[in-house]
Amino acid sequence: MNTIIGLDEELAGRSTAPLQIFSIVGFIVGARAHLSGILILKKQTIYLTPSAVVRLTSLILFGIGFSQLGISGAILATTSIVSSFSMELICVSVAFLIAKYKVVSSQSKCCLANQSSEREKEDCIEMNP
């Protein structure tokens, strides 16, 4: 490794664990960005507001908690960041489900209000559970 990128053996050995932990961030952030994009596209960004607060709060709490467990250095930082992004993904997922439920619920009510016969109302209920 020393001849390829100028890295000591000791430093390379100490950086493998943080890099392995950080390798999962792409999947977490990708899923969060996908769900956030859908909410932004549907113009329901109000549901995304708590996610930033959740990420910041969980980053601080995980940093304090993991340091109390004896984790330090780069492993502490990467574990805290991955954990806070995971909490934000959970928050955005819940927001996505809430927004989806409210849209389906409002479509069902609108559909029921516009139908005149009982058969049409039953068909509407079957199409929009």
Give a brief outline of the structure:
The protein has helices spanning 2-5, 9-22, 25-41, 49-68, 73-114, 118-127. It has 129 residues and is mainly α. α2 runs parallel beside α5 (73-114).
Structure write-up:
The protein is mostly helical and 129 residues long. 83% of the residues lie in helices and 0% in strands. The chain has helices spanning 2-5, 9-22, 25-41, 49-68, 73-114, 118-127. Helix 3 runs parallel beside helix 5 (73-114) and helix 4 runs antiparallel to helix 5 (73-114). Residues 125-129 have low confidence and may be disordered.
Tags for this model:
129 residues, mainly alpha, 0% strand
Beta-strand percentage?
under 5%
What integer is the average pLDDT? 82
Record field, number of beta strands: 0
**Structural class computed from helices and strand pairing:** mainly alpha
The gross shape turns out to be elongated
Which residue ranges are poorly predicted, with pLDDT under 50 across at least 5 consecutive positions? 125-129
**What's the alpha carbon Rg, rounded to whole Å?**
23 Å
Architecture blueprint of SSEs:
Blueprint: H1 2-5, H2 9-22, H3 25-41, H4 49-68, H5 73-114, H6 118-127
Helix pairs in contact: 2-5, 3-5, 4-5
